Amino acid sequence: MAPASRTPALGTDDPSCYVVVMREPDAILHDALELPEDERARLALRLAESLEPAPAPQAADAWASEVARRIQRLRDGTALTVTSDDALARARARLRRD
User: Fold this and answer.
1) Claim to verify: residue 32 and residue 65 sit in the same structural domain
2) Distance CA 34, CA 43 (A)
3) pLDDT tens track for 36-86
4) Cβ atoms of residues 86 and 95 within 8 Å
5) 71: closest CA among 58, 81, 60?
6) Which helix (H) or strand (E) is 81 found in, with range?
7) Can you name the residues that pair with 7 across neighbouring β-strands?
8) Number of domains observed in the structure of the chain
9) What residues have CB less than 8 Å from 8, skipping those under 6 apart?
10) Mean pLDDT of the 23-35 span
11) Within 10 A of 89 (CB to CB), how many other CB atoms are there?
């Protein structure tokens, strides 16, 4: 089940010259719906991810700076920390309220 096929280019006998013929979206969907559930889920995720905009180039630098700032606060003792037990208790309490 290939999404595209190679067709020899018109006007040439050269086997290295070809045209890629894309399949219709409805045909691809038909084939995709015949996949097992886990493969359909994986395909759906990949398609959804392809619609997300690429992160801004400066985002990686901003996150690196934020991580460095947080690490420094942990090292110098100024970070406000919470135990995992407290964090889970807070999360559970919020879920009960909402």
Assistant:
1) no
2) 12
3) 999 999 999 999 989 988 878 889 899 999 999 999 999 999 999 999 999
4) no
5) 81
6) none
7) 19
8) 2
9) 15, 17, 18, 19
10) 93
11) 12
Looking at the fold, whether 33 and 72 belong to one and the same domain comes out as no
For residues 20 and 44, state if they share a domain: yes
pLDDT of the residue at 1 = 47
Residue 40's CB: how many other CB atoms inside 10 A? Answer: 13
Q: What is the pTM of this model?
A: 0.39
Distance CA 80, CA 41 (A): 39
Query: At 29, is the pLDDT very low, low, confident or very high (cuts 50, 70, 90)?
Result: very high
The whole domain housing 9 covers: 4-51
Whether residue 46 is found in the same domain as residue 71: no
Task: Tell me which residue has tokens 């700076």.
Answer: 65
CA angle, 84 then 68 then 77, to 5°: 55
Residue 8 host element (H or E): strand 4-8
**What is the spatial distance between Cα 21 and Cα 73, in angstroms, rounded to a whole number?**
57
Question: Can you tell me whether residue 18 is helix, strand or coil?
Answer: strand
**Structural Rg of the chain based on CA atoms:** 26
